[in-house]
Amino acid sequence: MSALSDCHGAARGNAMAGYEDTRRLDELRATEYRHLDEHGQTYLDYTGSGVAAAAQLRAHVERLSGCCYGNPHSENPASSASTVLVERARKAILDFFNASPDEYAVVFTQNASGACRLVGEAYPFGRGDRLVLTGDNHNSVNGIREFARAHGAEVAHVPVRGPDLRVPGEEVRAALTGRRGLLVFPAQSNFTGVQHPLGWIDDAHDHGYDVLLDAAAFVPANRLDLSRTRPDFVPVSWYKVFGYPTGVGCLVARRDALARLRRPWFAGGTIQAVSALGGWHVLAPDETAFEDGTLNFLSIPDVEFGIGWVEAIGMDLIHRRVGCLTSLLLRGLTALRHSDGSAMVRLYGPGDADRRGGTVAFNLLDARGAVVDERIVARDTAAAGICVRTGCFCNPGAGEGAFRIPERALRRTAHVRTRTLDDYLDALGLPSGGAVRASLGLVSNVADVERLIGFLGAAYRDREPDATGLRPRERC
Question: What residues are annotated to the active site?
Fold first, then answer.
C-alpha cells in the first residue's frame, strides 16, 4: 500500500479517532476560508502565519465605515471611540488567557519580537545576574542575550538533546544558579513542534528567576491558562493565531514584573509628565508606559474580533484537529520510501504526537541517501502550489541540534572569514542550509496532508533532483 493510501485509510481509522468530531472546521473552510481552495494552493505554513476568515475582514470594513476613529490620547469623540475599543481588546486578551487584570497587564506591541525586545532592553540585568536560554529558541528571544551581556550578566544556553530534540529538564534546573535571573523558553518550538514543560516556570520562580515564556507558536492551537501557569512575560503575535491583523502583537506581563523593568528611554504616550528644559520625565503609572507613540488603533480592535472568532469555534476543537492531522502527517512522511526500501524523509523532533504541536520539520533524502537541498524543495513545492517553509526558521539552536553540529565547530567558524552564507555552510560541512517545515492549523484538513505526501512521493522517489540554477542563500 502506498504512503498516500496509508494516509487516506488512517484518516478514517482508530489512529484518527476524534477527527470526525472536528467536521465543523470543514464547513467553515468551505465558507469563511474558501479562498484557500479557490486557487489550487495547499497552505501548510501555519507556524509562519494563521489564515484570516472572511468574517474578520467584513468586521474590519464594517467598523471603519460605521464610525470615525481618531488617535487616542485625547478626549474628543473620535479619540474616545478608539480608546474604548483598545481597552476592550486588552480585556479580551486577558480573558483569552484567563488572566486576572489585578495580576496581569497587556502591553500592545508590533509583534512578539517587539515584546521580546521590550523586555530585553528594560530588564534590570547586572553583574551577578544570569540569563538562561534554552537551545530551542527563536532569534527574537536569542537577541535578549545582547542586552544581558551589555549589562554584565552571565548568559547560559541549555542545548537540545537526543533524537526528539528536547531540552532536558534536569539541565534547565541545574542552570538556574546565582542570586537571580531570567529564564526564557518557548512553550512550543517553532522548528520541531516540541512542547516544553510549563512546570519549568515554577522551578525558575523557586530559584528566584523571572520567566519569559514565548507563546507565539503555542497559542494558535493550545490553551494557555495564566491562572494556573504564571510566567512573568508572555510575547504573542496575533496574526499567528487567526491570520489578521498583522502588525499587532502584545506582551502579557505580570504587573509586579512589569514594575521591575527600567525603560532606557521614553516616547509620546508613555509619560505622565516631562520637561524639556528641566531634563526630567515621569513615566505613566500603568502599562501605557511601555507603548511607544500612537497605537495601531485601527487594527487593535480586530484582535478582539479574532479572539471572539476563535473562542466561538473552540480551542479544544482546533487542538483536536491539529493533533489528528499531525499524527497523520508524521505517519505519512515516515512511510515514504524509495523502491529499495530506504527512507525518503529524515524527521527532526518527535516522531509521534506526544508532547508536540503541529509543526513538523524534515529533510528529503534522494535515492543515494543524500539530503536534498532545501532550495530544491522550496522551488518544487512552490511550483506545485504547496506552501511550506524552508531554512532554519530563525531557530539556530534547534537547527544546530538537528544537524548535529559540534559546538567546537560553531566556535571555530565564528572566526572564519566567509563571503556568503553558502561559504559558512561549506565551512561547517553541512549538506544543506536548513530543513523543510510543514505546519498545521485551524482549518487544515486531510486533503492538505495527502497532497503534500503525494507530491513528495512523486517528485523525489528514486530520484536525484537537479540542483542547477539555484539562487545563493541570502540568510538563515
Answer: 394
